[in-house]
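Co-fold these.
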Amino acid sequence: QSALTQPRSVSGSPGQSVSISCTGTSGDVGDYDYVSWYQQHPGKAPKLIIYDVRKRPSGVPDRFSASKSDNTASLTISRLQAEDEAEYFCCSYAGGYTFVFGTGTKVTVL
Amino acid sequence: EVHLVESGGGLVQPGGSLRLSCAASGFNFDRYAMSWVRQAPGKGLEWVLIISGDGATTDHADSAKGRFTISRDNFKNTVDLQMNSLRAEDTAVYYCAKSGYYDDRHFFSWLFDYWGQGTVVTVSS
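Predicted complex below.
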């Protein structure tokens, strides 16, 4: 149950795009399409922004998109806005009733 | 509207015990699994335990093995986390999270779509 690997930080200017990778193994990301992504602002609870690899819950802007290839999932934030500055975590179902989160990525809007 | 409200956090000495509770409302509670997810200060999210909607199945992360147990009361719509033999490294914000989602076609997805505000557990002498 090792944490999924994410870059510690990424940054971009308003209007630009940034991408965050999430690398797991064949026992989690590679085996299941239950990859989800969460946005967390300081002092707040996480918020679901992507589920089932690429689906967006109602109310999440289409600037957020995601995909998966083999053992790596990716989140892309397009048309970056100041309010996107937050920590982002991926999460994968890992079989049975188990889950593993990513290490987290701090997105900075320059 | 879905609401999850955690309670029971506080300061506890190493080796001590603490019981957290999460009160749920706004959804068919017994239809969904519930998880506890924690976040140590300045660290990432860590899934800790889960319990199925009917309470028959539980699972846990290695960090919880033999020390933490999860239970639920589907009449009171609550889910509890009993933590024993607490260590300094258990210091964290503990969130309860609704685990799983059925879409309009009743297809199921594993995700954490609703979270409580968290309760702080500090293990220190």
